[in-house]
């Protein structure tokens, strides 16, 4: 579905490379979480999958990115956007209309969606993101979190096969953050939508993603199953990644020969670990 080969990218005017020799294959229906310290290249990776790099942000681009067989350098960004829906970190720059309704139908109308279908997709997208009550509100009266949901609804309305999101819960409280991830899971499970999401909240991400990619200095440091990757907690911490305490505790206990079970990813599993360690 997404095939990245030896991708390196340097933004125009920058000294160093934001991405260096990245190789990655993402299959249809994958749910991939991307983590890494600030400046590791996470946003640039998201931009590269959506074609924002090198079409919007220009620079030196080496290697290739193919999305559903389309080479992103050769494909027009608006054409690519029908396959890849992107939700960026800077929500303000992504929202262009006056009201929520206009924002959600803007993209649909741009792509010449028939009228009846526009109405249907609008209602569906608002419902999925839980913002039906905001339909007629002016965007400038909304909170950051509400705007984030509008940006996601506008992308969902286009029903892309791939969704890439850059810290979609950045402005959201824990409850809304979980709702967004539950929505992503629903899209992934019910419609086979491929999800690539950059997220700082590692425990939340671990609960929903099937695979974790760790970026470091523009390259891929780890790429694998969630437990396997989080098992490298000491190395992740050295990279400046905020590894959940319970994850590193498991590693410390393992190092001391006190625990040989799986890395706990939630409270229930942490409890099981504690019981095992105490022999209860
Ligand atoms: N629009 C841009 N123009 C020039 N340089 C950029 C731009 N965006 C990012 N960079 C540079 O590219 C490198 C990688 O940045 P990127 O934003 O991809 O990292 P990140 O892991 O997403 O970081 P953060 O967690 O802080 O968002 C950094 O050195 C950054 O300064």
UniProtKB/TrEMBL annotation:
CDD domains, A to Z: ABC_cobalt_CbiO_domain1
A cellular component term, taken from the record's GO annotations: ATP-binding cassette (ABC) transporter complex
Gene3D superfamilies linked to this entry: P-loop containing nucleotide triphosphate hydrolases
Keywords noted in UniProt: ATP-binding, Cell membrane, Membrane, Nucleotide-binding, Translocase, Transport
Pfam families registered for this protein in UniProt: ABC_tran
UniProt subcellular location: Cell membrane
Membrane topology: Peripheral membrane protein
Main location: membrane
PROSITE patterns for the chain: ABC_TRANSPORTER_1, ABC_TRANSPORTER_2
The organism's place on the tree of life at top rank: Bacteria
GO molecular function, one term: ATP hydrolysis activity
Occurrences of domain ABC transporter (ranges): 2-242
Family: Belongs to the ABC transporter superfamily.
Protein name (database record): ATP-binding cassette domain-containing protein
Organism of origin: Luoshenia tenuis
Origin organism lineage: Bacteria, Bacillati, Bacillota, Clostridia, Christensenellales
